[in-house]
Amino acid sequence: CHVGAAAPQGMKLDAANSYDNIVNVPSREVPSLNRIEPGDPDNSYLVQKVEGTAAEGGRMPLGQTPLTAAQIALIRRWVSEGANP
Prior knowledge:
By secondary structure, the chain is mainly α. It is 28% helix and 0% strand.
């Protein structure tokens, strides 16, 4: 659902835009948190959203099966290791 001009919260997650739209970019729901804070998965809003621990909004992917523990661990590791492209 995060593709095209109508991507929720302006967060386009297609291959051409995803990195620039999430790393070191403040979330729109909680601007005090970056969507991805390199090196800090606990303070990365996107991690909170996929884990279901975010203070605002629903767990992502909204209305779909949550990511598996292994998928979330992979995201957390990527963020912990600096969220490199």
